[in-house]
Amino acid sequence: MLGVTWWNTGGLYFLSLLGGAAGAALVVTLVGRALIRMSGPPLVGRRPSTIDLAYLKGGPGLAALACAVGLQRTAAVNRGPMLTLDVTGPLPAGAPPLMAAIHARLREPCAWLQVLADPQVRAAAGRLHRKLVRRGLLASDARRRWARLTTVPLWAVTALGLVRLASLVGNGAEAGRGATAGIVVVTCATALAGWLLLPAPWLTRGGRSTLRQAAADLRDVGARREGGREPSARELMRAVAVRGPDELVAVDPVFGDAVGAHRRPRPAPPVRIFSWEYNRYL
Question: Where does the sequence pass through the membrane (predicted)?
Fold first, then answer.
């Protein structure tokens, strides 16, 4: 009886209830995601390698790029004609499985996109992903499902708003009131919040702290490069793994073109229109 009375209330009263439920659902979702984000499995194993850091930073694409940098700097591969890559030397000793798979694929000259699509390279990247999950640096599938399930309250409120709006289809007098527009806004805003919070993070707390520590340790390497000394293969691989492809472009833009790493244009400075406003799109 109470539920029927609550459902049959006026539009403004229902809007206030819906807004309160949406706010409570958002708080529950954020708290749940924060708890999942702050907690995490303990780190297992030794210190992550450079290829591990590249995978944590940019996934399989950046990990493969770091491997290609290591192969190129040790004269194992180099750029061929028409933006292709070719093997020019033996595989370095102690190379990780992903680097070995890339070297094996390049025994037949091909473009970088063909390397990334190779089944053996993808399989090696998958094994690397599972290893990082076991070591507690990447979130497992179950953990990511729990993170997505925290948005259930938001979707429940969205469904409640949609059902209410559907019930007003045959009631023109009630649908024409201003409260109905408010219900539409709250429902759409709740659905948008649920959609934005639906993607689950890949990195665990240990993975994020590992990347922060690696970035802090890399500052001295950047200072030595600015001093005019050419970075070694290990240093350049580390810089690419932690900072991204721009480090390769700054050192070797020709090889960067072959592996799809291009220099990104600098953003235009903001144009001042009023004394209190800046437009970053002009």
Answer: 12-36, 152-173, 179-198
Start-to-end CA span in the chain (Å): 59
Q: What is the pLDDT along the chain (282 residues), one digit of tens a residue?
A: 444 455 555 567 778 888 899 999 999 999 988 887 777 666 666 788 889 999 988 888 899 999 999 888 888 888 878 778 888 888 888 889 999 999 999 888 888 888 899 999 999 999 999 999 888 888 888 888 888 889 999 999 999 988 888 877 766 555 556 677 888 889 999 999 999 988 888 888 888 888 888 888 776 544 555 556 677 778 888 888 888 888 888 888 888 878 877 665 555 555 544 444 434 333
Residue 82 belongs to a domain = yes
Beta strand segments in the chain, E: 77-79, 85-87, 271-274, 277-279
In this structure, the answer to whether residues 90 and 108 fall within a common structural domain is yes
Angle CA(158)–CA(164)–CA(168) in degrees, nearest 5? Answer: 140
